Task: inverse folding
């Protein structure tokens, strides 16, 4: 069992913890809607202790990792981050991963839907060490996420391109900062030594006060991923597993000759994808959709709900449905057979709102 | 299937296919049309287009559909679907407004 390390030995008022495949994370600190709002409108800080972290040297690990992960790790340049996935032998997703090439060091950060031992088993042939217990990952997300980091680490932070990694110092402690995130807002992942975690957490919260920072948990992250249209390995990923209907082709390099699950994925790709995940929104005022609810179109069963939740951006409940390919299009009116009765839903384009971060020009802040 | 449903799908599928072909050709993407999910992000995670790529996409859509995309309207490039929505919206406006684009 991996404990949350950002606040070791300290009680956080109102915090509720949750277990995710052997890792304990903070589900929420109180009002989940307020946590989502903080990320969409200001900045939120998440203790990402559920993330598994592996480290190795570029020279030793880059090619072995390339033979396991679906993306092209071998082509990863110094200072850059690859967003890819890890599949099992059957070509089913088990982890959503960032791989960062940081000078001589390579860093692998996985959010998984399987126990840590299963991820470690797939990486057994790679010369990387599991340092999950030695580090803490923080996620700083929101249209003002740049603020506390700029104030603590300097203006160079503003020049970091998306999917890049750099070494910085926060309050005297060395950290690795990835310009990355899964909320559709500006995001930074900060990797700190576990011994420095509590201090780093407090410093980020203090520096973020003038920007309206609030801590947020995994429940808020699930909602942010949902309406931000970021793949959630712990929601739709856990239900669907097959990366093709999930629309994760962009995370895979089909030209590569070897990666875990490649043959199975390529065989399904050649056969044609029969289903596809599509976003939907319930009609205003309707509530109660659940994962597993049947979806109908013109009276016929065409699929099922694989993820759902409240969208702050839409101001209504929304979700993802796995639909038959022929009807997996935005703009159609469906009926969801919920436990409370039929609900009216419309398939929508995602993300269904314009993230505030898209309007921020970092060279002008 | 209801004829109205069929009509909505047909119209959307046509625009989606043209935009995907445009993206693949103009940006030399190593994917087939089927590989590109309509909700894949064009910027950042997803296809990861840079500003030059984005300009290429805008030019491609403008030429293909005869619509004008305002400079700086980066929000339209959130996904293939959001681009398709824009084209369909403009197409409907043109039909109602006598073809003015």
Result:
């Amino acid at each position: 069992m991996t404990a949350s390390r950002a606040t070791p030995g300290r009680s956080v008022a109102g915090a509720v913890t949750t277990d995710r495949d052997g890792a304990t994370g903070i589900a929420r600190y109180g009002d989940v809607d307020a946590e989502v709002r903080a990320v969409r409108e200001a900045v939120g800080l998440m203790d990402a202790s559920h993330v598994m972290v592996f480290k190795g040297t570029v020279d030793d690990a880059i090619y072995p990792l390339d033979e396991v992960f679906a993306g092209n790790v071998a082509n990863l340049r110094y200072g850059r981050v690859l967003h890819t996935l890890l599949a099992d032998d059957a070509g089913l997703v088990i982890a959503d991963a960032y791989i960062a090439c940081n000078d001589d060091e390579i860093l692998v950060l996985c959010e998984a839907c399987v126990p840590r031992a299963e991820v470690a088993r797939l990486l057994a042939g790679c010369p990387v060490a599991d340092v999950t217990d030695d580090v803490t990952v923080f996620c700083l997300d929101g249209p003002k996420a740049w603020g506390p980091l700029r104030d603590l680490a300097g203006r160079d932070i503003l020049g970091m391109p998306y999917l890049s990694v750099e070494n910085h110092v926060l309050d005297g402690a060395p950290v690795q900062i990835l310009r990355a995130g899964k909320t559709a807002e500006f995001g930074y992942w900060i990797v700190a030594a576990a011994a420095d975690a509590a201090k780093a957490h407090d410093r980020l919260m203090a520096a973020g006060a003038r920007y309206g920072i609030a801590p947020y948990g995994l429940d808020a992250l699930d909602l942010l991923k949902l309406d931000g249209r970021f793949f959630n390995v712990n929601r739709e990923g856990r239900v669907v597993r097959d990366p093709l209907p999930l629309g994760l082709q962009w995370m895979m390099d089909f030209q590569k000759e070897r990666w875990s699950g490649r043959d199975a994925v390529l065989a399904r790709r050649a056969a044609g994808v029969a289903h596809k995940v599509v976003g939907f929104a319930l009609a205003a005022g309707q509530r109660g959709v659940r994962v597993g609810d049947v979806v109908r179109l013109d009276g016929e069963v065409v699929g099922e709900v694989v993820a759902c939740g409240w969208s702050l951006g839409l101001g209504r409940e929304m979700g993802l449905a796995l639909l038959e390919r022929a009807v997996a299009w935005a703009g159609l009116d469906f009926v969801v057979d919920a436990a409370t009765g039929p609900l009216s839903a419309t398939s929508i384009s995602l993300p269904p709102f314009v993230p505030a971060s898209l309007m921020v020009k970092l060279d002008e802040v | 299937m209801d004829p109205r449903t069929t009509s909505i799908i047909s119209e959307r599928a046509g625009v989606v296919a043209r935009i995907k072909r445009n993206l693949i050709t103009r940006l030399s993407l190593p994917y087939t049309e089927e590989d590109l999910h309509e909700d894949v992000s064009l910027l950042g995670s997803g296809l990861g287009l840079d500003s030059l790529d984005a300009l290429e996409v805008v030019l491609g859509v403008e030429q293909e559909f005869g619509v004008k995309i305002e400079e700086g309207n980066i929000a339209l490039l959130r996904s293939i679907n959001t681009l398709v929505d824009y084209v369909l919206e403009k197409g409907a406006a043109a039909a109602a407004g006598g073809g003015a684009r």
